[in-house]
Design brief:
With about 110 residues, the chain is α/β, with parallel strands linked by helices. About 40% of the residues lie in helices and about 15% in strands. The protein has four helices and three strands, in the order E-H-E-H-E-H-H. The chain has a three-stranded parallel β-sheet, sandwiched between helices. Helix 2 links the parallel strand 2 (about 40-50) and strand 3 (about 70-75).
Length: about 110
C-alpha cells in the first residue's frame, strides 16, 4: 500500500493501521519504506501502544524522516493483532474519518 502511494495519482493520502517499521520488518519490507518516506502526501499512522512489530518510539523516529504531513494516533492498551481485529474496526474508521476531515481531504 505505502509503496504505491505516489504511483497512484488518485491517492490523496495514506492511512495505515499497524504499519511495520521495526528492525525485523525492515529486513522483509525495507524496500517499501522509501516510497512512504519520500511521499509528500499526507500520512496517518494508527499504532497499537503495545504493537509487537513497531514501537511508538520507532514510529515517531520514522515520521521525523518523512516528507509531507505525518500524523500518529496511538491506541492505548492494545497490541498489533488486537488493533487489526474487527473489535476495533469502528474506532479505526472513526480515527481515519476524523483525520481526513481535519486535514480537509473530505467534507
Amino acid at each position: 500500500a505505502g509503496s504505491a502511494l505516489d504511483s497512484v495519482p488518485s491517492a490523496i493520502a495514506l492511512a495505515t493501521v499497524g504499519y511495520t517499521f521495526g528492525w525485523l520488518s525492515s529486513v522483509a519490507f525495507g524496500s517499501h519504506f522509501s516510497s512512504v518516506l519520500r511521499s509528500s502526501k499526507a500520512k496517518l499512522f494508527i499504532l497499537a501502544e503495545q504493537d509487537e512489530f513497531t514501537s511508538v518510539t520507532q514510529l515517531y523516529d520514522m515520521t521525523k524522516r518523512m516528507q509531507g504531513a505525518n500524523d500518529i494516533e496511538v491506541v492505548p492498551g492494545v497490541g498489533h493483532f488486537e488493533l487489526e481485529s474487527p473489535l476495533y474496526d469502528g474506532l479505526v474508521a472513526s480515527i481515519i474519518v476524523g483525520w481526513l476531515r481535519q486535514r480537509r481531504l473530505i467534507n
